[in-house]
Amino acid sequence: MKLALRHLAAATVLVASSSSWAAAVFTSSSAFLAQVEPGAYTETFNSVVDANTNVQSFSGPGGFGYTATLPSGQQFYFGASALSTNQPNVPVTLTFTGTAVTAIGGHFYAIDIGDAFLSAPVSIGLSDGTTETFTPGSAASYRGYTSSVAITSLTFSSGAPGAYATVDNLTIGTAIANQSVPEPGTVALVGLALVGLMATRRRDA
User: Fold this and answer.
1) What are the Cα distances from residue 67, in Å, to 70, 87, 97?
2) Residues in CB range of 96: below 8 A, 6 or more apart
3) Are 20 and 144 in contact (CB under 8 A)?
4) Within a 10 A sphere around the Cβ of 129, how many other Cβ atoms?
5) Count of C-beta atoms within a 10 Å radius of residue 74
6) The pLDDT of residue 199
7) For the chain, N or C: smaller number of CB within 10 Å?
8) Single pTM value for the model
9) Element at 7 (helix H, strand E)
10) Is 2 exposed, middle or buried, given 0-12, 13-18 or 19+ CB atoms closer than 10 A?
11) Which residues lie across from 117 on neighbouring strands?
12) N-to-C CA span, the chain
């Protein structure tokens, strides 16, 4: 019985570590938005006044806002009614200001020099340690993230030849408390912990 309790305690530590510091990932806007409190800020980038520099600021309702930054000497591109870059393979960093952000989602993809969708890997990294690389199937491909800790920044990029990292319909807001969907890794840890606990109980019996 004591051995079983030790197994359970270890499982609890593993699950807490995974769920506390890694965001839950969503691949559809409807699933993501269902986890976000009302009052979120969505930017469509349809009427952005281009500052023609490597820094662009955005603000919306609820005190939410962010600053988009490129490496020195680079410039943004909004000609495709989305946030992109003037040169390929340039990483974009969003630093969140104002109200704390615990939910962020949008259409992340790459375009070519003619603004057409480009099937290329896109990498996303969050300040809470979450990282993901995936290949969108279209400009409608979605990624959303909710976290139990404030997300202070997000960086996305595409290193494929001729790829311009792009985001559209970006939503930032507050995740609904206690409703984050566990990551596959967290579910796997729970499953392994339960299997170990069941095996221990069989041995004790």
Assistant:
1) 10, 19, 7
2) 64, 65, 66, 150, 151, 152, 153, 154, 172
3) no
4) 11
5) 16
6) 43
7) C
8) 0.78
9) helix 2-21
10) exposed
11) 111
12) 9
Q: Look up residue 62 and give its amino acid.
A: G
Assigned token pair, 45: 């980038």
Residue where the block lists tokens 């079983």: 4
| Cβ–Cβ < 8 Å for 89, 158 | yes
Residue that has been written with the tokens 């004790």 in this structure: 204
Q: Which of 35, 37, 39 is nearest to 26 (CA)?
A: 35
137 Cβ contact list (under 8 Å, min separation 6): 119
Q: Tell me the C-alpha to C-alpha distance, in Å, between residue 105 and each of 21, 31, 84, 108, 153.
A: 18, 11, 16, 9, 13
Q: Buried (b) or exposed (e) across 45-61, using 16+ Cβ within 10 A?
A: beebeeeeebebebebe
Structure token pair of residue 154: 């997000």
pLDDT digits (tens, 9 = 90+) for 21-64: 479 999 999 999 999 999 999 999 999 999 899 999 999 999 99
Tokens representing residue 12 in the block: 């609890």
pLDDT tens for 64-82 read 999 999 999 999 999 999 9
